[in-house]
Amino acid sequence: MIINTESAPMVQYDTVGENIGVLRLHNGRDNLVDHAIFLDLFQLKQWLNNYKFKGLILTGEGRNFSKGANVNRIREYKGCPEILEKELNEGKKILSYIEALPLITVAAIEGACFGAGLEIALSCNYRLAAENALFSFPEVTLGLLPGFGGTIRLPALIGQRAAKRLISSGNMITSEDAMRIGLTDEITGKKEAFQKAVELIEGMVNHCSGKQMEYLSGMLDQPWTDCLPMYEKESKNFTELIKTMDMG
Amino acid sequence: MRQLNEETKKEIKEMVYSFLADECEVPVTELKGDLSVIDDLDGDSLMFVEMIEQLKKKYSLNIQMQNIGKYLLKNPANTIKEVVETAYLVYEKENDIVEVL
Asked: What is the ipTM of this complex?
């Protein structure tokens, strides 16, 4: 089943059996994130209410998870950064919602997983990466910093030192490097990340009832990173930086 | 600098063709040296990085992506033939490829 609406142009909703929902990023070959509000949160909530999933997979259509934000779109906000700041804060509510879902959430990553795409993947419990996957926060090369939760979720996941290095270098790393620094949980064969994500969820939910999952998630998925002032501060920093992007 | 013999050249060329055929979902028999990876095969620049990663593993090469990136900025590999030649150069020079700039 696929729903595609005007309000959620880059996300397709799908299912695998009865227990697993799939959010598939879908925007051309690169799955660029054109808009911080990359899906309709109300619609997502309704969809999840209609199905009693135990797991949710985020993945990308085609050969890439996502090459990140559409930089040309960001440039359009140079004259009105306050609008972008608001949109970023709204977009982060989507990620915080996904992060706190009482489900097992897995990002199945093939190809490029850059910038905002990586920040979306960071909202999941697990990241399974195909052997050909590549990761990067390229914002620094544009005079920016990650602005979609990356400066908060990345250090929470891999530690402050490794996060600072990845963000400030703008370097691209392989799935092996990502695994080494704790950014990903498993390396899969090429084109196998999605199937492995299904297997991971199925293996984990076999022994848990819906109620058990809900209680467990209630204890574990209250993200200590879900700190609104920090996210708002990140949005403010990002929108300050877009005023001077491309200048150095 | 590594010596590139005819047998290894053949292996690398076959590896490049096989990789591109698989990634671009085109029969390997339809690939010709003068085809553009991006314009004719609908590929993208990251495919080259992935391919070099394969090459790196296969031959235990000491090459960093940043150095390939620097080289490609000055010497873009657009056609299949150029991709193969760059792969030869990566094999021979490894990280010293930046000195070829």
From this structure: 0.72
